Amino acid sequence: QVRLVESGGGQVQTGGSLNLSCNFPSSILHIKSMGWYRQAPGKQRELVATITPWGSAKYAESVRGRFTISRDSGENTIHLQMDSLEPSDTAVYYCNVYITYVGDEHDYWGQGTQVTVSS
């Protein structure tokens, strides 16, 4: 069973910072993108940031300029540096690895890590 292991969540005050990490098995092949999504209570899961294996990053407008996604290819790990956190960033953050191969596709998800930003 493929497991994505997340770490780094927690509680901070407005303006604080957190760094999330996600490690995934090297057995996952044909990766098209890796990234972070989040889901706040009563809301749908939404994209936060993604990055391709060759380093092209994409951000949600709400986090652009505050969050930075990066990858460590040698360690099969991605990171999300979150700065200038706001209460609206409070959510469960999920790591995602998206693969495509010969017309098929699959999403792998982590178990989620809670981020709470207090005012």
Features:
119 residues; mainly beta; 7-stranded mixed sheet; 4-stranded antiparallel sheet; 11 strands; 55% strand; globular
Give a quick rundown of the structure.
Helices cover 0% and strands 55% of the residues.
Structure commentary:
A hairpin with a 2-residue loop joins strand 9 and strand 10. The chain has no helices and eleven strands. The radius of gyration is 14 Å and the shape is globular. The strands form two sheets. Strands 2, 4, 5, 6, 9, 10 and 11 form a seven-stranded mixed beta sheet that branches. A four-stranded antiparallel beta sheet has the order 1-3-8-7, with no helix packed on it. It is mainly beta. The mean pLDDT is 95.
Cα(first) to Cα(last) distance is 39 Å
Range of helix content: under 10%
Q: Mean pLDDT across all residues, rounded?
A: 95
Main pleated sheet: 7 strands, mixed
Question: Any chance you could write out the topology, listing elements then pairs?
Answer:
Layout: E1 5-7, E2 10-13, E3 18-23, E4 31-39, E5 46-51, E6 57-59, E7 67-72, E8 77-82, E9 91-101, E10 104-109, E11 113-118
Parallel strand pairs: 2-11
Antiparallel strand pairs: 1-3, 3-8, 4-5, 4-9, 5-6, 7-8, 9-10, 9-11
